[in-house]
Design a protein that fits this description.
The chain has about 475 residues and is an all-alpha fold. The protein contains 22 helices and no strands. The N and C termini lie close together (about 10 Å).
Length: about 475
């Protein structure tokens, strides 16, 4: 499910107004800009200005400005981390806003997870120094996003629990419900289904009378059930949340429709997991009818049909439309200065290659599948490399197919489907007379780098789009 609700909507759960928290956040005045060290003076000066990005919108614009150029983002993160680590104690050059924005850039654009962790922890410390519930929530929620992306679910649980244990203002106490949601998600990913369900059901009961948010925590229960492989029960939970959204007459109509669309999209994937392609297709067809210019819905329906050898001509048509719509969106974003280049989505390119493979147009399919696999951001996925291997095998290129399948096995599992796919790829390799490679275990993070348990407590004693 991820962060399906904005801070503003979530705040309605317990009556915590964003304006109150944001007002408290402004108490953290920007630090005086430190004198830049030797090196790229212009970039250092630009990074130090991040300290002035006070408030969500200013932070979002600052993040977009750095993230749109990946090479610049990587350089900025490396430089910012160097500046931050060279300082000691209160003399660190970045305040909450600077560390938070740069930490998010490190995570989402530069993919420098170590730097992101250091910077976001510094952001958490800066937020707790001024006892800002809103900023503490931002920092801890961003840390949980980082851990979840790295599949460090135990660390995500730890971060959530640390936030819940903090002592502070009524606003901080009210904000804890948001990290309890993330706690349930992380525990579900760890396979701790019973514990995750207890948290989800508790939140659902707490918010049952608030029609604007009650649906959210019913969906959380569905998320936990889906992670446990209980597809039928998960479908019931999501359908229940859809009914609750229909009944939420006090919710802003546009917001309600957007949440219903998101729920239908989640249901389409869940129906695929449950093996009901027809129901998955109907959800996507409803979305396409409402949003004919949305490339995601068209690509997904085309891919689902292709993957199940259904409606191949229509599937190809939908995927090509998705690629065209995606290109137009990115061209517009480039014109508006929101991104620097226009590149095809690897997922959509893979879909086109896969439907051509299903139509036995192997020579046409292979270049597309290889192009998708070569994408440095989206190509590192077992499913895409499995497709490459299948196409190479169909062309009689056994050795290359084996190499592609072995490459795929080195990728992380991004969903429960990947766990099943991994078994199938291993079976293909054994059928080819080759022993599958074992994916190396990730290195354990250093425990001494973790934040102190009581960081953020008072002296008397921070959405995954």
């Amino acid at each position: 499910m991820g962060r399906a609700v904005t801070w503003r909507l979530r705040a309605a759960v317990l009556g915590v107004g964003l304006a109150v928290l944001a007002g408290a956040a402004r108490a953290d005045d920007p630090k005086p800009e430190a004198k830049p060290a030797d090196g790229d003076e212009a970039l250092k000066a630009e990074l130090l200005k991040l300290n002035r990005a006070s408030g969500e919108e200013a932070q979002r614009q600052a993040l977009i400005g750095l993230a749109k150029d990946k090479e610049k983002a990587k350089k900025a993160v490396a430089l910012g981390l160097k500046l931050q680590q060279a300082a000691k104690g209160a003399d660190k050059p970045f305040n909450f806003s600077g560390a938070y924005v740069l930490g998010r850039v490190a995570h989402l654009a530069a993919r420098d997870y170590k730097a992101a962790e250091v910077l976001l922890r510094d952001a958490a410390e800066a937020a707790t120094a001024v006892e800002s519930a809103f900023k503490m929530y931002q920092a801890y929620d961003a840390l949980v996003d980082l851990y979840m992306d790295q599949k460090r679910y135990a660390d995500a649980v730890d971060a959530c629990e640390k936030f819940v244990e903090l002592k502070g203002s009524p606003q901080l106490e009210n904000a804890k419900v948001f990290l309890l949601e993330r706690l349930a998600q992380a525990k579900a990913r760890l396979g701790q289904t019973d514990e995750a369900l207890k948290v989800a059901e508790g939140l659902a009961q707490l918010t049952a009378e608030n029609e604007e948010v009650a649906w959210q925590f019913v969906q959380l229960k569905g998320f936990v059930l889906r992670e446990a492989g209980k597809h039928d029960q998960a479908v019931e939970a999501y359908l229940d949340s859809l009914d609750k959204l229909d009944a939420a007459k006090k919710m802003d109509p546009k917001e309600r429709e957007a949440r219903k669309d998101g729920t239908r999209y989640l249901l389409s994937g869940l129906y695929v997991d449950a093996g009901d392609v027809g129901k998955a297709a109907r959800q996507l067809q409803t979305l396409i009818k409402k949003h004919p210019d949305n490339p995601t819905y068209k690509n997904d329906l085309g891919y689902i049909w292709a993957d199940h050898d259904q409606n191949l001509d229509e599937a190809e048509k939908l995927i090509r439309e998705a690629l065209d719509l995606d290109k137009k969106r990115k061209e517009k974003a480039k014109e508006e200065g929101r991104q620097d280049d226009v590149t095809e989505s690897a997922a959509y390119v893979d879909s086109l290659g896969w439907v051509l493979f299903k139509k036995k147009k192997y020579e046409d399919a292979l270049p597309l599948l290889k192009k998708a696999a070569a994408d440095e951001d989206e190509g590192n996925h077992l499913e895409i490399w499995d497709h490459v291997g299948d196409c190479l095998a169909a062309l009689g290129k056994k050795d290359e197919a084996v190499e592609a399948w072995q490459k795929g096995l080195t990728m992380d599992d991004l969903s429960r489907r990947d766990v099943d796919r991994r078994k199938k790829v291993e079976a293909k390799l054994r059928a080819a007379g080759v022993e599958p490679k074992v994916k190396p275990k990730p290195a354990e993070p250093k425990k001494d780098a973790e934040p102190k348990k009581d960081a953020g407590a008072k002296k008397d004693k921070k959405d995954r789009d």
